[in-house]
Description:
The chain has helices at about 30-40, 75-85, 140-150, 165, 205-220, 225-235, and strands at about 5-10, 50, 60-70, 90-95, 110-115, 130, 150-155, 175-185, 190-200, 250-255. By secondary structure, it is of the alpha+beta class. The two termini are about 20 Å apart.
Amino acid sequence: MTQRNILLRLAYDGTDYCGWQKQENGPTIQGLLEAALARITKEATEVSGAGRTDAGVHAEGMTANFHTGAAMPAAAFQRALNSMLPKAVRILEAAEAAPDFHARFSALGKTYRYDFFTGAVQLPAERLYRAHAPCVFMPERVQPCLQLLIGSHDFSSFEAVGTRDRSKTDGRGAVRTIFRAECVADPARPEHFSFRFNGDGFLRCMVRNLAGTLLWVGAGKLSREQFANILAAKDRRQAGPTAPACGLFLERVEYGEV
């Protein structure tokens, strides 16, 4: 039986899920997809994702792929999966991919966005999708620190404790390359901001740890020089807190030819 490779692009609200990766102690996005595909194809199907988003983290442009011997048109997987998945998970596209395509290993870059609100009282409807960081936030203090992140650096200071061995498996250690880093204000809503990071890869909790530290910078608790020292220290204990998961979105994953 010829095995086809199917690419999925999907979005999900991660509020009620234990992240992407299948596990024993709760529902996950990967687990939902594999269970639904098993019903559709009558095969045991392994789904590979572009990354492992943590519990409570959202996605607007996650990608995944799976191999199947099923003959149904690729586009039909979108309709079939959306008919079975909870409304918190939507397949945006299903398409044929090259035999050697892998959602994670073929990725050239990813973009994450971290949304936060700095006002005193947050609207209840925003609490699951935007972190609440009540403070006097000065974005002009953050910009020089964002520029320090551009390029290739050892991001050990912003890596979740206990994940170092896994980060070394691809030979890069804790080195990642950031192509773009910015802080954007929402012109229509005062005290609403977003950090956005585009890079060739991210360590476990790296974006949330960057966000927590940059919030300290914006609040005047850290200077540019102190932030530079934290980056150079390669020591997670030197950096700021891990920002809440609810503000983090995987916006998109970038590839060459699929």
